Protein 1
Amino acid sequence: MRLVTTTATLGQELTMARGDGRYAKLLASRAKVELLLIDDGGMVTCNTGNQRDLLEVLEDR
């Protein structure tokens, strides 16, 4: 499975998942993706929480 997303979209998904209890499940599903393309390469400013979440996704890969 392949996934193309932006930093902003990925950050929003992770923030919402953290809020409703799906965070671990979302991280696990992202770790199983064969190819993860983050299209904008971080062109948007991320807050500390989003930076930490993005690093979690990258570390799992």
Protein 2
Amino acid sequence: MVNGDKITLTFKEFELLQYLMKNAGIVLSRDKLMSAVWGFDFEGESRTVDMHIKTLRQKLGICGTMIETVRGVGYKICDVSL
């Protein structure tokens, strides 16, 4: 739920969000995200991660701004426990 509204995520979007949240505040490389969410045998490109992040941000609305791009490295989600 985002601001009281139910959102629908694909299974991979959910896994990606869950992994980011479990590692809140930690910068995760695209390769790390690929292996954690898609598995070691996935032969896609790192753009797969980028596209899923983009879609996830759109679906999360204002909360999507919590997912930060760390240029040249990867992504992180803000640590909300601060």
